[in-house]
Amino acid sequence: MFNSLSGLFSFSRSLNTVSNNVSNMNTPGFRGSDSFFANINGGRGTRIAGEGMRTAAGDIRQTGNPTDLAVDGEGYFVLRDPDGNLYYTRAGQFRFNEEGMLVDSVNGYEVMGLDESGNLVSIDFDDYRTIAAEATTAVNFEGNLAPGSTSTTINSISVFDSAGTAHALSATFVNNSSATPGSFLVTVKDETGATVGSGEIRFGTDGTLLAGFNQMGITLTQGGVTQAVAINFGTPGTLSGMTSLTGMATNLSAKVEDGHGVLGVTDLSFDENGVLRLVYSQSEKREGPQVALAAFPNESALELSGGRLVSGATVDERELGRPGEGRFGRISGGSLEMSNVDLTQEFADMIIIQRGYQASSRVMTVSNEMLEQLYNSTRGG
User: Fold this and answer.
1) What is the C-alpha to C-alpha distance for residues 71 and 57, in angstroms, rounded to an integer?
2) Quick one: 191 exposed, middle or buried, by C-beta within 10 A (0-12, 13-18, 19+)?
């Protein structure tokens, strides 16, 4: 009777484990558990010796949220609470908080990254919200300037000063072939009409630029600050840059090579190496911090505690690393790892548990009937 009672208790506890697995089938990063039965010495029945966490990874599903991260392979994200304690999780449901720190969306713990020296650091977005203004240093011209054109003007050449203020320049090319064959005089003016630079370009008989006449400099003065800008017309003797080819229309254009105002982030994402990628404009992009991962030599000894957090390992049993290096998996940005609970397996386990519980209950019933028969026999004697 007591053996069967131990079976009832053990199967009941095992059903609790299955129930917990099923109820968390949609919990990101959840790892299912299995109950381990053990014999009690002396033939006194069974007991639950413990639970083991399933280490297989769950399915990765896209969420579209750029700060949601999943580990495709081995490794756990590292979290730090306000007291400095470290925790580990596979649930990469993260966000940037009001202070610009990447934190876990549920408990608010900071997500840790690795600096260049391999030290754990916070992933701080504040330092990357904007990039300072940059002055323009070069403008490149390209296209054809027809030999027969008398005067051609290119307007709205937008350059930036050191404060990030945009200024519209214009460049006028006046045919000077009457004085020197293939020569054009160049005048550059600012938005006020003031001349900020002048020079000459010359083309050879093949329509390509001549050496020594393929560039010039201009000087801008804004707020008492002088700024030099190089004007490049192309490479001498080649078709790169400006040309003056017969039979082709004039189709000049100017390309500002650098410079910009104060820029804010327009897009962010994490790449497969866990590096924060930030986009400010079509040409301005930056790299931010890198997410840290932790691995454990005996992952099956770990256990889920506090919902999404993993415990059961000391710092000495932990290995830190970078995604995509060594044993560590790669990061899948805009995605979450779901639980590794298999409903088919859970239903099969429930059937086995139910049969075991039913059988133990039947043993107890038979034992009770035998005792009752014994008592009846004694009264009859």
Assistant:
1) 9
2) exposed
What type of residue sits at position 87?
Y
The one-character DSSP state at 234 is: B
Written as tens digits, the pLDDT of the chain (381 aa) is: 788 888 888 989 999 999 988 988 888 888 888 888 888 877 788 888 888 888 888 899 999 899 999 999 999 999 999 998 888 999 999 999 999 999 999 889 999 999 988 899 999 999 899 998 999 999 999 999 999 999 999 999 999 988 888 999 999 999 999 999 999 999 999 999 999 999 999 999 999 999 999 999 999 887 778 899 999 999 999 999 999 999 999 999 999 989 988 899 999 999 999 999 999 988 889 999 999 999 988 777 777 776 678 876 666 778 999 999 999 999 999 999 998 899 999 999 999 989 988 998 888 888 888 888 888 887 755
CA distance linking residue 48 with residue 248, whole number of Å? 89
Q: Is the pTM of this model over 0.85?
A: no
According to DSSP, residue 106 is labeled T
Which residues touch 76 (CB under 8 Å, ≥6 apart)? 88, 89, 90, 293, 294, 295, 296, 310
Contact 265, 280 (CB under 8 A): yes
- Residue at 16: amino acid letter: N
